């Protein structure tokens, strides 16, 4: 029995070998034929007569006909072509600088200056500190980076109209060029960052934290000096006693349209607003406060005259960007050696609408009773305030440019009342005018000679 199973297994193995690659075994020898001459070498022996008539072994599966084979091959080629069309084409890998990307990835690791210096991220930290001062205090860095990297200049013209409200599209379109210009390496690595959304999210989170630290430093600098800067009562030196807890700061935060109502009963007005009582006066983001207005230009019943041209706003801007000396002296900076002013560090020569909004938000925070920064304060919502002002500025580009030019003159121009007397053109201007007159005489003489030569010819 064992011998039979062994033989069956050998047969089975031989059958698999035949089906796989081995040539078919020779048929049994016909005993009627004469015996082979075994004295001859193998290559000289003649094959048996019936070897030529030997049939090929029957395959395990039937071979299809030529027509069906052709049709199957065409179907396979068509299916292969369809798969190639559906398969996404491999895009060329975006170029990047390994050192820069590694620095981006290390941003969240170092929170203190020694760690930032060791990680090589200190220069990025200093660059990011500028962002809230040029983009405003309420920027959504995640939205700006995601939208800006995805679009990278591909902005829809349908939304570029004054009637559009300020939103994520406008914020990204306005903010991304500043980030590309001021954040080292960002512009070059935009194609690469499109494939690294997790890194973009991490960078946005880091930018937000740095912006909060920068805003906190400016707010602390302002809130400690606002009492002396605006000659406020000493009993509001404690910040938690400000806002609508005191009539002096409450009046500065009062909506410009409700100043007459405030003056009728300041204590009751402040009490209603502070306690959030039912029927209280509305102090929302769209109700611009008195401290943002120049009351000499304000026209009752209108909102535009005098808006933003406030001496309080100018004093706060000077204190933030030029230092306390410039704020108290009306623009004159100190000549003593020491820490340079923020405007000098930023190489600041203009004053954009976003910077104006930054100053307005910090000024309002220093006047309210909040101990720590919060975007919202009662009925006032910071993001809504941001959207209201930016939407208003988009309605009249000429008015917006005029406001920026006015602040540039207040901060960087000649101090009011200290301009030079008008004494005519300078020596250089006179010298250049003489050169032009002499050149005109030479040209005229040359033209006359040429005309005479042509006439004689």
3D architecture notes:
With 457 residues, the chain is an all-alpha fold. The protein is built from 21 helices and two strands. It has helices spanning 2-20, 66-86, 98-105, 113-119, 122-128, 131-135, 141-151, 168-182, 190-193, 197-223, 226-229, 247-253, 259-264, 266-274, 311-322, 324-329, 342-345, 353-367, 382-395, 397-412, 427-456; strands at 376-377, 380-381. Strands 1-2 form a two-stranded antiparallel ribbon. Helix 7 packs across helix 8. The longest helix is centred in the last third of the chain and has 30 residues, at 427-456. 23% of the residues are buried. Residues 1-28, 39-43, 50-54 and 56-68 have low confidence and may be disordered.
Q: Roughly what is the average pLDDT, rounded to an integer?
A: 80
Q: Outline, from the CA principal axes?
A: globular
Report low-confidence residues grouped into runs of 5 or more.
1-28, 39-43, 50-54, 56-68
Query: So how many helices?
Result: 21
């Amino acid at each position: 029995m064992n011998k039979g199973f062994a033989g069956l297994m050998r047969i089975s193995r031989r059958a698999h070998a035949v089906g796989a690659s081995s040539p078919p075994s020779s048929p049994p020898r016909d005993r009627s034929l004469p015996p082979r001459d075994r004295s001859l070498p193998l290559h000289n022996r003649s094959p048996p007569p019936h070897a030529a008539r030997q049939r090929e072994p029957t395959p395990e599966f039937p071979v299809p006909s030529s027509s069906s084979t052709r049709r199957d091959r065409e179907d396979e080629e068509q299916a292969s072509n369809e798969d190639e069309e559906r398969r996404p084409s491999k895009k060329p890998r975006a170029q990047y600088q390994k050192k820069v990307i590694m620095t981006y990835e290390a941003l969240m690791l170092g929170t203190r200056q020694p760690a930032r210096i060791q990680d090589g991220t200190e220069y990025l930290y200093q660059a990011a500190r500028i962002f809230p001062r040029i983009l405003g205090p309420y920027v959504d860095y995640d939205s700006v980076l995601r939208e800006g990297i995805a679009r990278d200049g591909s902005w829809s013209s349908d939304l570029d109209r004054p009637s559009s409200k300020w939103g994520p599209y406008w914020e990204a379109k306005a903010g991304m060029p500043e980030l590309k210009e001021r954040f080292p390496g960002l512009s070059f690595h935009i194609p690469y960052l499109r494939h690294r959304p997790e890194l973009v999210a991490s960078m946005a989170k880091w930018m937000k934290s740095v912006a909060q630290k920068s805003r906190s430093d400016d707010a602390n600098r302002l809130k400690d000096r606002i009492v002396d800067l605006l000659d406020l009562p000493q009993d509001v030196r404690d910040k938690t006693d400000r806002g609508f807890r005191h009539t002096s700061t409450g009046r500065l935060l009062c909506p410009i349209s409700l100043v007459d109502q405030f003056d009728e009963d300041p204590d009751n007005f402040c009490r209603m607003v502070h306690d959030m009582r039912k029927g209280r006066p509305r102090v929302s983001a769209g109700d611009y406060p008195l401290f943002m207005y120049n009351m000499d230009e304000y026209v009752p019943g209108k909102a535009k005259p005098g808006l933003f041209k406030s001496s309080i706003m100018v004093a706060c801007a000077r204190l933030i960007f030029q230092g306390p000396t410039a704020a108290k002296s009306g623009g004159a900076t100190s000549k003593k050696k020491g820490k340079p002013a923020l405007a000098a560090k930023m190489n600041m020569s203009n004053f954009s609408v976003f910077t104006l909004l930054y100053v307005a938000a910090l000024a309002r925070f220093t006047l309210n009773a909040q101990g720590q920064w919060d975007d919202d304060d009662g009925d006032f919502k910071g993001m809504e305030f941001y959207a209201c002002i930016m939407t208003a500025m988009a309605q009249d580009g000429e008015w917006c440019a005029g406001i920026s030019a006015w602040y540039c003159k207040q901060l960087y121009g000649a101090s009011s009342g200290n301009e030079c007397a008008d004494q005519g053109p300078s020596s250089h201007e006179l010298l250049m005018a003489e050169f032009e007159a002499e050149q005109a005489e030479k040209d005229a003489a040359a033209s006359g000679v040429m005309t005479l030569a042509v006439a004689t010819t």
